[in-house]
Specification:
Structural class of chain A: alpha+beta
Oligomer: homotrimer
Order of helices and strands of chain A: EEHEEHHHEEEE
Mean pLDDT of chain A: 97
CATH class of chain A: Mainly Beta
Distance between the termini of chain A: 14 Å
Radius of gyration of chain A: 16 Å
Helix content of chain A: 25-40%
Shape of chain A: elongated
Largest sheet of chain A: 5 strands, antiparallel
CATH architecture of chain A: Sandwich
Largest interface: A-B, 33 and 31 residues
CATH superfamily of chain A: YjbQ-like
Strand order of the largest sheet of chain A: 1-8-3-5-6
Number of strands of chain A: 8
Low-confidence stretches of chain A: none
Number of helices of chain A: 4
CATH topology of chain A: Jelly Rolls
Chain lengths: 137, 137, 137
């Protein structure tokens, strides 16, 4: 099946969007019963992971990452482009651009409190493009 | 080949279990000569990575992560559920739920001192469920 | 298609090499039009991620990671082997050994400023071995 795209507006500074339903729908539409689905964030300030998507952790993740890698600190990256998103690039590279999730009988094998999210680590709201690829096993 | 499951009891607060042998056995049983194997941790407080599985690093990884993201700190997550594993969720999301490892002639292409581990970042011992999916190349 | 290997000398302490062109070439040579490519770093002190590969971030990433997980600190790992790369192992495990990137019509679906890199977290320059596996969708 060709790759599918999810486009979603996400707030900056570590905002995240739950894309589990969209991924689930893409898997169902594929008609493939058993396989894995690759979720990839296009662009160097986005990242993909899983998290319990609830109001507390949505606040905790950006706050804790900013304590470790503050947006307000100096980064050599800012000298290259005279922008301000050096911390966002680093966070995105550490969390990583892709995950792969198995599915069985058409259902994602996630935990009950485990959602797939795209995180926007840029310093402004952006439309993030996520590419979803379904492979049979 | 259908997905396979590994169930393993793992200590809390960053305990880890070496699951390399189980993954190796699943690859051999698949009868597939060349391919990749996806290893996925079900649940939002578990993570998968590779590490040199030796007594020193087994202590270092949870200690260092706890210095960066302490279990004893405040997390908004605790207000949602009145539990205490906010730090564990964050660590799991940063390390990530999945990796993909190539194999050739039925053998995993790992380094000699590189083992596949599931990490349990919850605040209690848990049986972690790991899903293993073998794909030919 | 069989797995392909990239061998590249990379400086220690978080040095990185842009391997995007080599991955692109491997995808083209495969003759597969649409699929995903798995990039895996063999060895427990190497990692794979994407980053904007420019002179600023090349300096920022190792510096920031060393502020969080200093090479000069004590690690129990050093007692096992009497070496000095405990921090490097931890950084590699957190960033992770593999990513999966989709491609379409033979072209990697990366952002314009998103490159695939292998990072060498060991304490000396090393030839890193990266395994590249192409799968059709």
């Amino acid at each position: 099946m060709p790759h599918k795209r999810i486009f979603v507006n996400v707030a900056g500074y570590g905002g995240m969007a739950d894309i589990t339903e969209q991924v689930r729908e893409i898997v169902r539409e594929s008609g493939i019963e058993n396989g894995v689905v690759v979720i990839f964030s296009k662009g160097s300030t986005g990242a993909i992971t899983t998290i319990e998507y609830e109001p507390g952790l949505i606040k905790d993740l950006p706050r804790v990452l900013d304590e470790l890698i503050p947006y307000s600190a100096y980064y050599a990256h800012h000298e290259t482009w005279h922008d301000d998103n050096g911390a966002g690039h680093l966070k995105a590279s550490i969390v990583g651009p892709s995950i792969t999730v198995p599915f069985e009988n058409g259902e994602l094998l996630l935990g009950t409190w485990q959602q797939i999210v795209v995180i926007n680590f840029d310093t402004r709201e952006r439309e993030r493009e996520v590419i979803v690829s379904v492979l049979p096993v």
